[in-house]
Amino acid sequence: MNRDSRLPILPTVSRAFLEDWLAGLRTYCPPQQLAGFLDQIGLTDTVQPHARVTHDQIVRLYQLVAVETGDEMTGLWSRTIRTGALKHLCASMRGASSLSAALFRFSSFWNLLLDDYAVVLETEEEALRLMLVPRGPQEAQRFGHMLLLKLAHGIASWLTGRELPLRDVSFVFDRPDFAEDYPILFPTPVRFGQPQSSIIFSGLAGSLPVSRSDSEMQDFLLRAPRDWIFTSSREHALPLRVRELLLLSDRLDYHLGDAALALNLTPRTLIRRLDADSTSFQGIKDGLRRDIAIRDLSHGNKSIEAISQDIGFASAANFHRAFKRWTSVTPGAYRRRNAGR
User: Which residue ranges does the record assign to the HTH araC/xylS-type domain (predicted)?
Assistant: First the structure.
């Protein structure tokens, strides 16, 4: 697959993943306002079963909602998290002596603001565990739980200047239909239906120093939430490791056996482990081709025929059929809706 190295090829997420967020926004934003937000990022409020959403669209939607509503957690909690709260959080954590101390400040900060949950930090020799403990009987807001735990991981990774591996990410709610989107965000397998929603760092990470300048903090906040939602780990779950191998290979004939050899697995074991993650080698390969096409249709003037050839289709007609199967729209319709966004 021929790829333009100037633009990243990021995994998209399913529209179902975004719907989890939109369900909360519909109770928080007037319909006309939410429709305006979606129009600005190239989406409609009509759900298309196989539609995909890019990182840029999620980042832009967050920025629009946070600014227009004045809530930096976009209505996901019972109390408004007012503009400037995340700046104060980063400033507080930046002044800590170590990551362990910074995570203690993270939990203390949210315990001052949240009525719904207590954020509890458990520090042990081998693990640092942040968990959400309900203050009373209530139903977990899935996107809110995900966003708060991802914020902890994203800020911690930024403070230490490295993508921090995780030992575990667990959620109290049942496994959703779009569970395959979660490993894109968290560099570890994700569990569902657990006693609490929690995130576990290695205990060794607790002693890491934190060091960021005021100007670095301003840049981090200006890009928010890109740098704390979409961190760039090489420690992700197996499907994304296979995707990375495909990206690095730059070969149309890269086969499952090649990936198995690179991962020190037998082909049978790789098939079994990918199946356990509800995916397959061909599914990952098609997902990468889809995301390259989405990127190239959204940026630049490369023709649809050239895009189809770059990702290995024998004809533009075959590409049209595959793209519509992947996203529910044709390449031309996708380009008209999203080009330049």
Answer: 240-337
Cα–Cα distance for residue pair 235/29, rounded to 1 Å: 37
Q: Where in the chain is the domain with CATH 1.10.10.60?
A: 238-338
Q: For residues 297-308, b (16+ Cβ closer than 10 Å) or e, as one string?
A: bbbeeeebeebb
Nearest to 256 by CA among 230, 288, 282: 282
Question: Which amino acid is residue 212, in one-letter code?
Answer: R
Residue 211 confidence (pLDDT): 87
Please answer whether residues 249 and 3 qualify as being in contact, where contact means their C-beta atoms are separated by less than 8 angstroms: no
Helix (H) or strand (E) holding 182: helix 182-185
Going by the DSSP 8-state scheme, the letter that residue 263 receives in this structure is T
Residue 247: is its pLDDT beyond 90? no
pLDDT tens-digit profile of 124-173? 888 999 999 999 888 899 999 999 999 999 999 999 998 898 999 999 99
| Residues 193-229: b if buried by 16+ CB within 10 A, e if exposed | eeebbbbbbebebbebebebeeeebeebbeebbbbbb
The residues, any chain, with a CB within 8 Å of residue 282's CB and separated by 6 or more, are: none
Structure tokens at 338: 């999203």
Q: Quick one: which H or E segment has residue 190?
A: strand 190-191
Average pLDDT over residues 202-220: 93
Give the residue among 140, 18, 24 at the shortest CA–CA distance from 71: 24
Rg (alpha carbons) of the chain, rounded to whole number: 21
How does DSSP assign 68-136, residue by residue? HHSBTTTT-SSS--BTTHHHHHHHHHHT-SSHHHHHHHHHHHHHHH-SSEEEEEEE-SSEEEEEEEESS
Cβ 216 vs Cβ 162: under 8 Å: no
Q: What is the mean pLDDT of residues 236-259?
A: 82
Q: Which CATH number applies to 238-338?
A: 1.10.10.60
